[in-house]
Amino acid sequence: MRVLIVEDEEFLADMIAEGLRRDALAVDVVYNGADALERLRLTDYDVLVLDRDLPGAHGDEVCRSVVEQRLLTRVLMLTAAGTVRDRVDGLDLGADDYLTKPFAYEELLARVLALGRRTHPALPPVIERAGITLDTARRQAFREGRYLALSRKEFGVLEVLMQAEGAVVSGEELIDQVWERNMGYRTNAVRVALSKLRAKLGEPSVIDTVPGHGYRIGVPA
């Protein structure tokens, strides 16, 4: 899941991003509305965590842009104002959810994950394929009942491959969904993560390389 955080309180924005990345989400951060509009033009996001009072372009303008462009991006609006009128105004603009500052990180995470599930066709919280069980809610993975101690990147790669249900996923798609934008990652980073993931999954191998196309979860030989 790819998330864009737009928050002019840089410390808060960075803290949210750090937490979401620990929970295996790909996160980009900008600190003003103008940069948010540019990112939304260039990149497809599952969820937009949007502060309402922003420099450059007001959060209301950013939200309207998402609606007018008919983007699939779900909007979680943040604000220090907590009146009913403020909440209604935000939802009337097209926001999908509303969270008043201060808030608990656990609540923000739950709302982001819930909105992310609405961006795509409904998937079960527990995905099973080729002897692998992936619990996306608890961020846990098992193979034939054996717990897999995965890094957040390894979990993210496995999650994307499992959700593809046997379809081929390119290295570029994995980078787009698992790594942060403008971090200098190339397909070599995918190869390294896949190598470590394969080692932790063990034999027989279930991740197939499709030369010239990408990777898929196959059937053990």
TrEMBL record:
Residue ranges constituting the OmpR/PhoB-type domain according to the UniProt record: 124-219
Keyword DNA-binding: yes
One example GO MF annotation: transcription cis-regulatory region binding
InterPro entries recorded: CheY-like_superfamily (IPR011006), OmpR/PhoB-type_DNA-bd (IPR001867), Sig_transdc_resp-reg_receiver (IPR001789), WalR-like (IPR039420), WH-like_DNA-bd_sf (IPR036388)
GO CC terms, sorted: cytosol; protein-DNA complex
DNA-binding residue intervals: 124-219
Alphabetical list of Pfam families matching this protein: Response_reg, Trans_reg_C
Keyword vocabulary terms for this entry: DNA-binding, Phosphoprotein
Modified positions (4-aspartylphosphate) in chain numbering: D51
Response regulatory domain segment(s): 2-116
A single GO BP: regulation of DNA-templated transcription
Protein name (database record): DNA-binding response regulator
Phylogenetic lineage: Bacteria, Bacillati, Actinomycetota, Actinomycetes, Kitasatosporales
